[in-house]
Specification:
- The protein is built from 2 helices and 10 strands; from the N terminus they run H-H-E-E-E-E-E-E-E-E-E-E.
- Strands 3, 5, 6, 8, 9 and 10 form a 6-stranded mixed β-sheet that branches.
- Strand 8 and strand 9 form a beta hairpin.
- The longest helix is centred in the first third of the chain and has 26 residues.
- The termini are far apart.
Length: 136
């Protein structure tokens, strides 16, 4: 009988110990997330940007030149379009191309409006800085 009593007491104590540990673990405050997981979750989405550079700063009327640049924060294959400032408005020209897998683009442009032309590239929610090309 003594042996049976000891086995029962050991079983009850083991169950109480396991239950107490589980209750203590659930009542304990959660450990803070690791710094690596925290910085990944806190990282803001990348801002979409475009760069643009003309192959020349002066051309004859209807002479072809190139505008090339890169994009960041824009999905590969996004269409980018040349815009020209006409008066107070930006007008999209029929010159567009899609970005490649690295975000780069290059397109051919011909302008017929003589004088200083202000151009920019627009696409994917981003607009490049203004570039100027003089048409003689």
């Amino acid at each position: 009988m003594n042996r049976a009593y000891r086995l029962t007491a050991a079983g009850v104590l083991s169950a109480a110990l396991v239950a107490g540990t589980a209750a203590a673990a659930s009542a304990a405050p959660a450990a803070p997330a690791s710094p690596v997981a925290h910085s990944v979750a806190a990282k803001a989405p990348q801002q979409a940007t475009l760069t643009a550079k003309a192959s020349t700063n002066a051309v004859k009327a209807w002479q072809e030149f190139r505008i090339s640049g890169t994009s960041t924060g824009i999905k590969a294959g996004t269409k980018v379009t040349v815009q020209q400032k006409q008066g107070a408005k930006w007008v999209s020209l029929p010159a567009s191309v899609t970005t490649n897998k690295t975000g780069a683009y290059s397109l051919r442009v011909k302008l017929g409006i003589k004088g200083v032309n202000q151009l920019r590239i627009a696409g994917g929610g981003a607009i490049s800085p203004v570039i100027t090309v003089t048409v003689r």
